[in-house]
Amino acid sequence: xxxxxxxxxxxxxxxxxxxxxxxxxxxxxxxxxxxxxxxxxxxxxxxxxxxxxxxxxxxxxxxxxxxxxxxxxxxxxxxxxxxxxxxxxxxxxxxxxxxxxxxxxxxxxxxxxxxxxxxxxxxxxxxxxxxxxxxxxxxxxxxxxxxxxxxxxxxxxxxxxxxxxxxxxxxxxxx
Length: 175
Prior knowledge:
The chain is an alpha+beta fold. It is 55% helix and 10% strand. It contains five helices and four strands; from the N terminus they run αααβββαβα.
């Protein structure tokens, strides 16, 4: 064994046996560094550089994994919360309910009788397809009430301006 390797092995054993020897280990390193001609300092710098590279790699992997998981979650939710079953069929007009697609919302109005004064506005839940609320809106419209389904942009409204736009659409329907 070379002298530098012997010093490293000694320091490792010393640190492993007693974790509270931090200052003493550094003192021993300083003494050994003077004896080994500066080789220990180079080894410390190499270890520090290796730790820095490992930490950067870990951060990159962590960030890429997080972004991939978030994107995958939104794709899964987009497809998992689609309208199915009777919902797409409830979007068609017939003799009982008139369904109209306006610029910002779907409007369900009773066709057989005049609409009552009270109406209903549906705001779909986050990531839920607005068409999924069509059967419920149709049944309320058959009872004589006007119903509007206001879709959220990208199926959710996290930003304040998006919330204001949805509220403005609801206000346009109400007035």
